[in-house]
Amino acid sequence: MTSVLHRIALALAALLFLTAEAAAQAPGARPGGPGGPQRGARPEAASPDAPPAAARAAIPWVDVHTHLVGGGQRLGAQDYDAAAAAIIKAMDEANVRASFVMPTPQPAGGAGNYDQDAFLSAIKPYRGRLFAMGGGGSIGPMILAQPDAGEVDDARRERFVTMAKAILDAGAIGFGEMTVTHLSHLEQHSYHRARPDHPLFLLLADIAAQRDVPIDLHMDPVIEPGPAPAHMKSSRNPATLVPNLAQFEVLLAHNRAARIVWAHAGWDQTEHWTADLARRLLAAHANLYMSLKVQPRSPLRNQALGRDGQIAPEWKQLMVDFPDRFVMGTDRFYAGENAAGGTAAGAVFAERTPSLTVGARILLNQLPPDLARKVAISNVEKIYKVKID
């Protein structure tokens, strides 16, 4: 009976995938990413992740990596209330039980840096469904200001510790989105880099271990020096990327009690993040976890979901072999109506990323039921120390 139900779930997933693909390829389909809406349209109106009732009734899940986009141009004037309402609506449509909201990683000295305090009041009415992560707009830029520092003076360390603890005291359930190597996708989108074994990253690992919270880390992996991939057109990316894997392993080994969630697994932008690389690191570091980001119909290599809508066998086997180490994190952006159609990177991504929720549903529906339940919710509760109702 279980196998029959599983085949039915796969059929529904395939139907949903093909429906979204057909809509994207139909005459007059809107540009802006795979299946994405036209610039200026309301994202929820054109979102491909409004599944039929049968698919909506499938396994509930948690999205551990999302962003809110405000509607104003000045810091403090953004309409995060509308963005929070937008994410709740999308969650209800996709059977998402809870979402973790976090600031995008902000560059050092960038204009308009923000952190979880910007949207805490907006998510407060949705207690139990929306949770905050913090640090990407405050302590993250402190690291990026001296990306290759071998040591940090006492005053800077003390300030960093004070800020990090204040983030958790304000209600954040972990640190994120922190960044090591972050490639630029658009001219409006920032590039930044810091050593994974930076003294402040090592200090953050100690704080996270002490407070029993995870670190969400964005690191586009770079194995050897070389240019950014050809599909990365932004002039903000450097001519030569700096390797980061050896230093990343130093961070992982520094404090084994620090849980590090490597964001965007299964979505390889550098053509270095293979399932084999993930397997080696997961086997070597028991405190490493990965959140899966799945892009339907992606033309890039090493993706967890093939263009045919089927999960790549090597990624599926990886999840089977490490069933407690994966969660879903779409990296989807949610904007209120006032932000729709904007030219800032966040507004553009809000219109391009609804298909990532579709991808998550497709992937979950193809996992064995027990594994799907772990990736969907059980692992989240253990890694982030939260109870999902």
Summarize this structure as a short list of keywords or feature phrases:
alpha/beta; 4-stranded parallel β-sheet; disordered N terminus; 7-stranded mixed β-sheet; TIM Barrel; 389 residues; single chain
Describe this structure as you would to a colleague.
This protein is of the alpha/beta class and 389 residues long. The chain has one domain (2-384): Metal-dependent hydrolases (TIM Barrel), CATH 3.20.20.140. Helix content is 39%, strand content 14%. The protein has 14 helices and 11 strands. Strands 4, 5, 6, 7, 8, 9 and 10 form a 7-stranded mixed β-sheet that branches. Strands 3-2-1-11 form a 4-stranded parallel β-sheet, with helices on both faces. Helix 1 runs antiparallel to helix 13 (355-365) and helix 7 (154-169) runs parallel beside helix 8 (199-211).
Number of helices: 14
Q: Strand percentage, roughly? A: 5-15%
**Fourth CATH level, the homologous superfamily:** Metal-dependent hydrolases
| Overall CATH class | Alpha Beta
Q: Average pLDDT across residues?
A: 82
Order of helix and strand elements from N to C terminus = HHHEHEHEEHHEEHEHEHEHEEHHH
Which structural class best describes the helix and strand composition?
Answer: alpha/beta
CATH architecture: Alpha-Beta Barrel
**Overall strand count:** 11
Q: Stretches where pLDDT falls below 50 for ≥5 residues?
A: 1-57
Give the SSE map.
Elements (H helix, E strand, L loop, with lengths): L1 H24 L17 H4 L6 H4 L4 E9 L10 H15 L1 E6 L18 H4 L6 E3 L1 E2 L3 H6 L9 H16 L5 E8 L9 E2 L5 H13 L3 E5 L25 H10 L5 E6 L9 H10 L3 E5 L20 H9 L4 E3 L3 E4 L9 H8 L2 H11 L3 H16 L5
Parallel strand pairs: 1-2, 1-11, 2-3, 4-5, 5-7, 7-8, 8-9, 9-10
Antiparallel strand pairs: 5-6
Helix pairs in contact: 1-13, 7-8
